[in-house]
Each structure stands twice: as C-alpha cells, then as structure tokens.
Design goal:
It is a single chain. The protein is of the alpha/beta class and about 160 residues long. The chain has two domains: about 120 residues, no CATH class; about 35 residues. It contains five helices and six strands.
Length: about 160
C-alpha cells in the first residue's frame, strides 16, 4: 500500500496498541472527538482503507462518517473484531503480496458483486446502552421513593 490506512479513533492515541495490537505509526489517525481532525479525511481516495473499530463513538463521528462515505471509500471496516482480524492478516507475511481487496474478499468482508465492504454496526450503540442504564437507575430510585412513602406515610 502506498498510503497509510485511516483509523477513526474516539479514544486516546496511547490506547491504539492496546485495542488493535498495532502502533499509531501504521495509520493516519483521525480522532472522532476533535472537529479539527476532520481535515485529514480530505486526503481519502476510493482505495484508502478506513478502520473504524468503535462505530458511532466520538463527538464528531457523524461528520467523519459523512466524509468517508462522500469520498466513495470502498474499504470501510467497522467493528473492533473485524478491524483486529484484518490487521492480523495484514501482518501475515505469507499474504504480503496480496492486495487489500483480495484480503477482504478472502475474509468475507467484501461483497464480490458490489466490490464494497460490508459495514457492520453493533446492534446496541453506546447511547442506547446509556439510556437503558439511566432508565434502570431511575426505576430503582422511584421504587425506593415509593417504599419510603408507603412506610412513613401510611395511605389508607
């Protein structure tokens, strides 16, 4: 590959190696929590791979995703497991001469008819998990208030 793959990253840069097993130097890192980072996405071409291990995460994720889609990017790998799998395969010396497209076809991440990667979005985005947690905590609080009221103020 002549250009570095793009990494949409919502966490601190020091965590890249921990989560992906690959160094920051291997990517053009675009931090999805910083609006100024979007300028790096103007360099995207259709053949630039985009790794998106935490889809939907980041304050400016939607703007980043719009730039990726607008560039006609053919290789958008979304999801932590998918990103890890592709990165491990890229480090395999036995397939070093294979193109990125051939690698994705072999892994089943590329639709052979459309020649476009399948973007996998997790079923429960972070905001949905947060709302479920908040509602569960509110229910606990409301039950505690109701029990306190029943115990101290006997309603007949």
């Amino acid at each position: 590959m002549t250009t570095k793959p793009v990494l949409l990253w919502p966490k601190s840069r020091s965590e890249i190696a921990v989560w992906l097993g690959s160094n920051e130097e291997h990517f053009l890192v675009v931090e999805t929590n910083k609006a100024a980072e979007i300028r790096h996405l103007y360099q995207l071409t259709a053949d630039t791979p985009v790794f998106d291990p935490f889809p939907i995460a980041g304050t400016h994720y939607r703007a980043c995703l719009e730039h990726v889609q607008g560039s006609g990017c053919r290789f958008h790998i979304a999801g932590l497991a998918q990103c890890r799998t592709v990165l491990v395969r890229l480090q395999d010396r036995s397939i070093a001469r294979s193109s990125f497209e051939e690698l994705l076809l072999a892994l089943g991440y590329l639709d052979p008819k459309a020649r476009r990667t399948m973007v996998v979005i997790p079923p429960d985005p972070w905001w949905l998990v947060w709302w479920r947690f908040a509602i569960a905590e509110l229910r606990k609080w409301w039950e505690a208030v109701a029990q306190f009221t029943r115990h101290h103020f006997k309603v007949s």
